[in-house]
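Task 17 of the worksheet. Students: predict the tertiary structure of the chain below and write it out as structure tokens. Keep your answer in the requested format; marks are given for formatting as well as content.
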Amino acid sequence: MQSINYEAIKVSKKSQKKFIDAVVTEAPLQININEEPYTVVMRTPGDDEYLIRGLLFAEDIYRNSDPLSFKNIDTTKNHFSTIQVTIPKDKLGKGYMNKRTLLSVSSCGICGKQSLDHIKVVGEKLINSLNIDIDTVEQMFNKMKSHQEVFKKTGASHAASIFDSNHNLLSIKEDIGRHNAVDKSIGNLLETNSLKQSKYLLVSGRVSYEIVTKAFIAKIPTIIAVSGCSSLAIDFSKEFRINLIGFSRNSKLTIYSK
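Model answer:
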């Protein structure tokens, strides 16, 4: 369940009115790897396997193309869930040793890291050239918005969408957490073996360093955001040769890296 109805009161200077408001669901998901707790993420229930697959890919825990085994151990009436992931020990990546603390919140990708050394990302710089215009960006955002069903109901969920070189929509996922939405979209394409077609990552909020690193690991060369970009996101984008665009709204945009 991605939204829950709550009784509320809408207040203005002239009146008060009771109404039923659709509120985006937020609930913890505990991820166990080979029967041992790995981390807890706050997320919007739904597409949990995509979320896990994308997270494990970004954290260099599992980047193999073979399917993973998921088992829902428990889900309470409040959507508190525990999912067991089975990964052969010889296929566990180096990231498994850099375990997060058991609580990782939906709004922060750095929270829970054991040390500053763990925010470093290495790899070959992306090779691409910026070839985009405002009209095309608006068209992609309009496609994304048309699929944001949770946001239409609640006004409180983030979205991440991935497009190919012809600006065709490959994946659109929503979540209360910005990073979770990105992980879900990437995980979706990993499951369908189509991540290599990814050229554009569009996000409904701001861009932090973590979103840039997720795009870099997934080899997505262009990130476009509705809101601003952090200084570290810009620095990482310049280092990785990622096209970073912010404040894409009202027929305007700001290019921070190309």
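Marker's comment: The helical segments are 48-58, 134-146, 149-154, 178-191, 209-217, 231-240. The chain has two domains: 27-118, 134-257.
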